Amino acid sequence: QVHLVESGGGLVQPGGSLRLSCAASGRTFSSYAMGWFRQAPGKEREGVSIIKGSDGSTDYADSVKGRFTISRDHAKNTVYLQMHSLKPEDTAVYYCAADRIEGSVVGALKWPAYYALDYWGKGTLVTVSV
Questions:
Q1: Contact call for residues 126 and 18 (beta carbons, < 8 A)
Q2: CA 12 to CA 47: how far, in whole Å?
Q3: Residue 69 forms beta bridges with which residues?
Q4: Rounded to the nearest 5 degrees, what angle is found at the Cα of 12, between the Cα atoms of 6 and 18?
Q5: Among 5, 36, 75, 96, which has the highest number of CB atoms less than 10 A from its own CB?
């Protein structure tokens, strides 16, 4: 049974930082592309950041570039999302996802509604508020 479990969400003030973790179990994901996505109340899911399995290269949504950093620890089968300078508009449930097909994760970053990725976690809530 494959599981992706997110953790690290919580309440943080504007300008603060959080680090999200996505722990994978059930198989090794080192060759998989993985990504972080988020969904705010009343809004569609949007891509936040992805990291490729082939070369570890990364990409980000314009709204988080320069503030968020994605990374992965192959030994721990875990992907991280370090978030700095958080804004109220970053408030959302954050999900991690994985897929064997790198192009699907890359495409899902910009068009998440069009790509059915293989594995999803259940999400962790991030609330940015005073």
A1: yes
A2: 21
A3: 82
A4: 45
A5: 96
Looking up tokens 């994605």 gives: 70
Name residue, tokens 């722990």.
23
Residue 30 is which amino acid?
S
Q: pLDDT tens for residues 70-105? A: 999 999 999 999 999 999 999 999 999 999 999 999
- Say which amino acid occupies 100: R
Tokens for 129, please give them: 């508020």
φ, ψ at 17 (rounded to 5°)? -130, 155
Which structure tokens are listed for 87?
């804004």
Residue type for position 91 = T
Asked if the model's pLDDT at residue 106 lies above 90, the reply is yes
